[in-house]
Amino acid sequence: MMKRRPAIHVLGASVMLLATAFLSSAAAQAQSATVPLTVPEIRQCLCLQPTLQPLQDAWLEKQRAYDEQQAQLATVDREVIAQRQRLDPNDVVGQQVLKDLLSQQQGLRDMISGRSLPEVNQARDAYNAAVAQYNGLCTRPRYAADEAAARATPLTCVAP
What we know:
- This protein is mostly helical.
- Helix content is 82%, strand content 0%.
- The protein has one domain (37-152).
- The chain starts with 6 loop residues before the first helix and ends in an 8-residue tail after the last helix.
- Mean pLDDT is 79; it is low at 1-33.
């Protein structure tokens, strides 16, 4: 007696075949719908690319300075806590040391919130905007026709 194959196996195979055909057709349509970079766009990308590294370096430098100030503030915070714990109410010198530490603590907080943090944010935003502009223009797929046009035309940054 022959065993019958369950209908689910035939159905599953048909679904897999249809899904594969659909996905490969969708990929082909997406590829054909992509607009390749033009020679002027390639030139613009060549001009944009060198501007990214200095912006990233500036951001990382601001971030490093901010992190150092945060570390200094954490150190002063610990010193304030330690000074408060060991402060004798009759110790005038100890009270002055605590006042000086509190003043230093507030100065660091003001510098961080008033200058350092805005500088880090501004540098990061400038870098992110440049990367977004570069990615929006320059990271589309390139095709053989573009490469042929690019080889035929000199690709250099033309300063505005």
